[in-house]
Amino acid sequence: MMARSSLALEGSKSILVFPLHRHHRHLLLLLLLLRIVRLSYSATSTNSSFAFQNFRNANQLILSDSAIITKTGALRLTNSSTQTPNLGYMGHAFYPAALQFKTAPAGNTTQSFSTRFVFEIVSQGAERGGHGLAFVIAPSTNLSNAKGSHYLGLFDVSAIGNSSNHIFAVEFDTVREPLLQDIDDNHVGIDINSVISNASSTASYHTDDGRNETIILDSKTLIQAWIDYDGQMNLLNVTIAPLPSHPEKPKRPLISYAVDLSPVLNEYMYAGFSASTQRLASEHYVLAWSFMINGQAPELDLSQLPRVPTTSTSMWKSRFLPYASIPLFLLVWVVAGMSWLVYRRRKLTYEKIEEWELDYPHRLPYKEVYRATEGFNEKKLLGKGGFGSVYKGVLHRNGVEVAVKRVSHGAEQGMKEFVAEVSTLGRLRHKNLVQLQGWCRRGEELLLVYDLMPNGSLDSYLFGDKRCLSWGERFNILRGIASSLLYLHEEWEQIVVHRDVKASNVLLDAAMNGKLGDFGLARLYDYGTNPKTTRIVGTIGYLAPELSSTYKATTISDVFSYGALLLEVACGRRPVGTGRASGEVLLVNLVLSLWKEGRILSAVDKRLGMDYVVEEAELVLKLGVHCSQATPEARPSMRQVVKFLNGDLSLEALELQNQVIEDDQDLHQLGLHFSSSRTISSNTASSTEPGTRGKLDQDKSSRGSIW
Question: Which of 380, 405, 575, 624 might form a disulfide with 566, Cβ 3.0–4.6 angstroms?
Fold first, then answer.
């Protein structure tokens, strides 16, 4: 009988016993040769441990899907150049031999194990990649039924949470998926039979001095990871740290999780890595790896780490470079468009400043006013009047809200003189005057910048759709405007004639205090001198009758306008109205007739009912008639008006006798054709035409106020 012997070879999963015959000696030699070749790899291994200092000669790894070994010796699990749209793609790499995680005969307790590895995630930009990689222990190396993207190439959608999966993984996830209960887009998680982590934490490490430092997983940073499971204590620790700044294992783990893996891991399992991406592409690299059952994983020689390829086919080269002409074309159009916008903006904001303008204070750059109103955007328009449009804006220099009025003035109307007066008016300071913030000029256009009054104009409350003002509010407003006119007429360094006192130029602040605004028509002259002859400007119903012959605006002509304002506020009617009986076209005529009949209080605004102070209402009505007398010398001065309103002069001083109200037929006819919201403007009449009335400029306001 032929002699027989046997040969026992240690394998990673079982011991193979072959009967040996003399004629099988060639088989013995072949097996010994294979054993020698296996031991010559860069990885060192036993049946329970192995170490890959790099993967240059580690061709025995089982690679699937996108996983490859690069020329530099790095294990690349995903390749962004082979991205499959919508479905994503994945890569797997497993140690070829099954590892024994449970011992016979009982086989119920999972043995302790330890692994460490170095990985790097390369994205096109920090925190702009996906989806992540995972260290995995699985019953098979075939995970072809798994899905990419958020499932990290580990599970099928229908198999999530199934205890029959027998899959344990530690994920390094760079995309937050709320449906999978991810805590953020940069975390480490422990996964058992599911990608919904049993425990997770933001990627970080604990320094020796106790600080917790965050690590951005997809920031092209080398990261070393340690995963240690204690089978006796059923405790799993996960630790990470960046290289090369922290090569040693931190003393405190990132995650410490109590778990019994015995129900999860079979007796023999495969260890490896899985990674996936979808529309957010990254390249996931493992550069070194060691593993041991019942002991600490072998140390890694960090000096042998392979270099992550920088010349690998990137997403840019493989997918976007062929279409580079498209973004280049778009870039050219964008640059051209921006250049045109810049040119247009500079053209719109260009201003030619003449030397004389620099002599006057309060001048603002046109560009600043343009920006404040967003290029005089129609959405910023507050109203339009016969002398210009008004826009709401915000000065960027101080954040102050302003109203910007655009006034057109031809050179023949004396722009230089006009600017000089406006600039001087910028020094006016009174609590009942709207403050002029500044001015600027562009061509024949003058822009006046005032403080913005949040409650708009008095006109909008008297005749608009806003609430009815109480008598107390009305009387307080009238006293404030009288005080401001007294300041202009007698208390400032020069005499200022406003020339356009009316309800639409009385503005209300947040506390409903009246402030006189719009000094675009104002004129000033020194004390002891006579005002210059000028053109007739103002509003029908507020114009003093002597202006038709003298063409000289004076403080007394302002008193006439204020008298019309007194009657307007008390009666709730405009000074001139259409569609009324001949005796009621002019409001002053109506009030005067009621005064003569002894029932002057009948003229009070019917919306007030009886809710007013009788003495104050009677004072306002009689004072309004007194200020509206045809003879300028018969009118009170603004100082006397203020004394009446403050109670320093008695009501008896306002007698009915000697009241002369102008019954101008021409003015009467104007009232029949134009309401009091119309503005009159006339060039200065020549000496041969003293009765010239000039022309009428229709107020284009559709909001009841140019403010």
Answer: 624
305: phi > 0 → left, psi -120 to 50 → alpha, else beta; which? Answer: beta
What one-letter code names the amino acid at 252?
R
Distance of CA 670 to the CA centre of its chain: 52
The fraction of the chain above a pLDDT of 70, given in percent, is: 73
What is the C-alpha to C-alpha distance for residues 388 and 699, in angstroms, rounded to an integer?
A: 9
Residue 73 near residue 64, CB atoms below 8 Å = no
Tokens at 574, concatenated: 């405009």
For residue 350, count other CB atoms closer than 10 A to its CB.
Answer: 10
| Tokens read off for 624 | 């309004």
d(C-alpha 554, C-alpha 547), whole Å: 9
Catalytic residues: 500
Please state, in angstroms and rounded to a whole number, the distance separating the CA atoms of residues 113 and 230.
7
pLDDT at 684: 33
* CA–CA gap between residue 548 and residue 566 (Å, rounded): 23
Q: Identify the three-state secondary structure at position 416.
A: helix
Q: Strand, coil or helix: what is 97?
A: coil
Q: Answer with the residue of higher pLDDT: 157 or 469.
A: 469
Confidence of residue 705 (pLDDT cuts 50, 70, 90): very low
| 240: helix, strand or coil | strand
Residues 265 and 168 sit within 8 Å (Cβ to Cβ): yes
Asked if residues 33 and 22 have their Cβ atoms less than 8 Å apart, the reply is: no
| Inter-residue contact 29 to 18 (CB < 8 Å) | no
Closest-CA residue to 205 (of 219, 190, 217): 217
pLDDT in tens, 70-116: 999 999 998 765 444 444 578 999 999 999 999 866 667 899 999 99
Q: Are 615 and 651 a contacting pair, CB within 8 Å?
A: yes
Q: What's the token pair of residue 239?
A: 């630790």
> Which residue type is seen at 106?
A
User: Which pLDDT score, from 0 to 100, does residue 411 have?
Assistant: 47
CATH 2.60.120.200 fits 49-302, yes or no: yes
Q: For residues 699 and 497, is the Cβ–Cβ distance under 8 A? A: no
- The third-level CATH classification (topology) of the domain covering 453-697 is Transferase(Phosphotransferase); domain 1 (1.10.510)
Report CA torsion sign: 28, 29, 30, 32: positive
How many residues in total does the chain contain? 707
Q: What is residue 525's predicted lDDT score, i.e. its pLDDT?
A: 67
Hey, which bits of 218-345 come out as E strands?
223-230, 235-242, 255-258, 268-277, 282-293
Tokens for 136, please give them.
């995995």
pLDDT tens digits, residue range 664-703?
434 433 333 333 334 444 333 333 233 333 333 333 333 3
- Residue 20's contacts (CB-CB under 8 Å, 6 or more residues apart) are 4, 5, 6, 7, 28
